[in-house]
Write a structure and sequence with these properties.
Elements (H helix, E strand, L loop, with lengths): L3 E8 L7 H17 L4 E3 L17 H17 L6 E10 L2 E10 L2 E7 L18 E3 L2 E7 L7 H8 L4 E5 L8 H16 L3 E4 L2 E4 L2 E4 L3 E3 L5 E4 L6 E10 L2 E4 L10 H20 L4 E4 L4 H14 L4 E5 L7 H14 L2 E4 L3 H11 L7 H16 L2 E2 L5 H6 L16 H11 L8 H5 L11 H11 L7 H5 L4 H13 L1 H4 L31
């Protein structure tokens, strides 16, 4: 029986549906693991098909492609190199599972299905898992969020598992990396077993994955932490002692402060969205406000200045300060900016519609962005934030809205953080107040109200206890309802917090419940 084992943990950035490319990346990671002297390489949940697969998993040709790639990867392990644990679909008996596979010696040694998939998802629940045996070591292999339910690791421990191993594709939200480790500590305490975690990295649609793999020993000490927001293949050295298996401790990377985590999430999400969409770059409006300036800085950090272009779209009444600040922002970031006054288009709508033409300003700006972007193959970006999208106050829809899950106050705080060191935003922008919609309090007061009323279970009691007027709460609640249909037309953007608009917050359009506050 072996008393030493070297396990390589890989956090990869697979592309959903790009099975051949994902398999090639897994082979490359296995070669890295072999060079490290690892006996087995562990990759994230659904690393072969790419997460999240969503309804791709219902396409028979996609399942067949994954199965063929799995067989080829299994055959490749006959070379005497490391074994391989990877994630992908498993179709059997008319059922479809989110599974992990153990490959070694040229064949598939074991399969484990996710036991607790989301009830409204595409995958069927698998049986309670037992350990998989790899070269005499009993691994407690858990797929996806199964490890979060105490019953799954406890069952594995009772079945003889020696190391708990979670293969996940867990999206980033603010505070989630720390919550993961806290929850894993609880699993270690409950089972008395060491715990290894690996996850996906990269941006995909509305999600961004931070990776952030780690290893906890049975004494709850943190032996390893992988970097956040970048691919990595990391060696871990394990030794069996009288009290079971332990992982040799490695120097831990410095913890990223919360603003830097948020920034890296935004940058990675945008970079992958542009790359996977095949866009030539991005196009955005610089309007002399903090939102558009922060968006431009994010785009430059994600893509480089050469792939970012800006439009200045002044109206007749736009003040010179805003134009100066927009131009200064472009100069600081080193991006090309084109001035395109909207007065001619606005005059045309006013001539056509009278006073109603005034309401077309946002649509004119969006149309200018869309037209210029279409001509160049660029992705048009929206600078709207969650406060604006909540009440649909501000700019019209374009192609992608990186800041859509940040509150207005978070945008300002993040802009100040990004401007430390070498400034990339004009200082005057950070001092200019961001006006809230007419009739509502400033954003420092409004954002907490919006946060409370868009929570999973809206409760006005804490707001009332803080002295907020019931009339203001009722007004915001009504505005939330009235703006619901517009939010459904908003461009997609990355999810950064819990209960985001879109998938996670589903209210009836124009619902009739108005009695939130007595």
């Amino acid at each position: 029986m072996t008393d030493r084992l070297r396990i390589a943990l890989a956090q990869l950035n697979p592309h959903p549906g790009a099975v051949a490319a994902n398999a090639a990346r897994i082979r490359a990671a296995r070669a890295e693991a072999a060079a490290m002297g690892a006996e087995v390489l562990v990759t994230p949940q659904f690393s072969l098909g790419g997460a999240p697969p969503e309804d791709l998993a219902r396409v028979p040709a996609f399942i067949a492609a994954c199965e063929a790639a799995l067989d080829a990867l299994a055959a490749g392990t006959a070379d005497g190199g490391p074994g391989l644990i990877l994630g992908g679909p498993w179709a059997e008996g008319g059922r479809l599972f989110d599974a992990a596979f153990l490959l070694d010696g040229g064949r598939i040694l074991a399969r484990r299905a996710r036991h607790l998939p989301p009830p409204d998802g595409v995958f069927d629940p698998g049986p309670a898992p037992g350990p998989v045996v790899f070269r005499e070591l009993r691994l407690g292999l858990m797929v996806g969020n199964d490890w979060r339910d105490p019953a799954v690791p406890e069952t594995l421990a009772e079945s003889g598992a020696e190391i708990l191993l979670a293969v996940d594709a867990d999206p980033f939200t603010q505070g989630e990396p720390e919550r993961r480790i806290d929850l894993a500590v609880a699993r270690v305490v409950e089972t008395g077993l060491p715990f290894a975690f690996t996850s996906q990295v990269g941006g995909q649609g509305e999600w961004v994955f931070d990776g952030g793999g780690f290893v906890l020993n049975a004494d709850r000490s943190l032996a390893l932490r992988q970097p956040m927001f970048s691919e990595a293949v990391t060696r871990t050295d394990w030794t069996r002692g009288e009290d079971g298996w332990a992982c040799a401790a490695q120097p831990l990377p410095l913890a990223l402060p919360a603003p830097e985590q948020l920034w890296r999430a935004l940058v990675l999400a945008l970079a992958d969205h542009v790359r996977r969409g095949g866009f030539s770059g991005v196009l955005l409006e610089l309007s002399g406000d903090v939102d558009s300036a922060l968006l431009a800085a994010c785009a430059v950090d994600a893509l480089g200045a050469a792939q970012v272009r800006a439009l200045l779209l002044p109206a007749p009444e736009t003040g010179p300060e805003r134009l100066e600040d927009a131009a200064a922002c472009a100069a600081l970031l080193g991006i090309e900016a084109e001035a395109l006054p909207i007065a001619p288009a606005l005059a045309g709508f006013q001539a056509m519609l009278g006073e109603a033409g005034e309401a077309m300003r946002g649509h004119i700006r969006a149309a200018a962005l869309l037209a210029r972007a279409e001509a160049s193959g660029a992705l048009p970006l929206a600078g709207g934030n969650r406060s604006g999208f909540t009440l649909c106050h501000g700019e019209a829809a374009t192609g992608y809205a990186p800041l859509r899950d940040l509150w207005q106050t978070e945008v300002l705080d993040l802009a100040r953080w990004r401007n430390t060191g070498k400034p990339v935003l004009p200082a005057r922008l950070l001092e200019r107040p961001c006006p809230a919609p007419p009739g509502l309090p400033p954003y420092r007061d409004l954002d907490p109200i919006l946060q409370a009323l868009t929570a999973a279970a809206p409760d006005p009691a804490p707001l009332l206890a803080r002295g907020i007027e019931p009339g203001i709460i009722k007004q915001v609640w009504r505005l939330l309802d009235r703006a619901g249909y517009k939010r459904r037309q908003a461009p997609p953007g990355v999810t950064l917090g819990r209960h985001a608009f879109g998938r996670e917050r589903r209210y009836p359009l124009f619902h009739g419940f108005t009695d939130l506050v007595p």
